[in-house]
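subagent[fold] <- orchestrator: predict structure for attached chain, return tokens only, no commentary.
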Amino acid sequence: MHKIIMNGTGHAMYVNPGDKRGGRMKRYAGLSQPAVTAFWRKAVSLLEPAIVVDAGANYGEILLSAQYPVYTEIVAIEANEGLRPYLLRSIGDHPNSRQMKAVFAFVSDVADNTISFYVDQSHSGLSSGHPSGSRAVKSTSIGTVTIDSLFQDRIIQGGTLLFKMDVEGFEWQAIKGMSKLLDSCAGAIGCIEFNRSYMIEKGIDLNGFIDFLSERFLLYAPDASGRLIPMETPVHESIARHFNADKTCNDLVLSTNAELVSKLES
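subagent[fold] -> orchestrator:
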């Protein structure tokens, strides 16, 4: 277990340096996704979210990069059991550790189910609920949760929800599974992985997913500074144009209202 002091934060993160994802964290001092991290830290600072959800936390690179208000409820969800000791130790060392809860399950739109999960033996970040083809993977069975199910005993009225989803092509299901939470909060903003080539390869209806997102959110792409570039209508054309021009961008920011984005730009 290798300890990293995350760049610009002073927060500790523990990784397996023998894992390619862990090795990448070590090389970049825990800052391998600068655009998403910049967005996330700015959102925590300026929006002061009441609830934070990180679905597909992996080693916790994004979640651990910020310090949160003392009242924020923070949930990390990770499907790869092999990352449990690393993520739990990192959370334990974080200044907001008492507010953080780690859930080891597969996030979807149906709770209390069991699915096959494919753990990549060399790169934990490539583990997925989709079969990986030729890569060396270990097939496991894992229980599912919805984000709504994690808050089903709570009465939530108002406050801002900040979320991140990196669940290897299951973002559509994960968002469906937090519809009640989205309706209960005053506003929500979050970042999802949006790897078009991966989704097409796995048979995901990309146009259908974009339609689903645009019916529920305003869509933006983060740049390296954390600035949000609006995906204007017609959304399909705007997304294609932006992602074709910026081959490094694999993320979308979703916001339920423009006011939250305006606060980030103030």
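orchestrator: received. Logging for downstream: The CA atoms of residues 19 and 41 lie 26 Å apart. The first strand starts at residue 2 and ends at 5.
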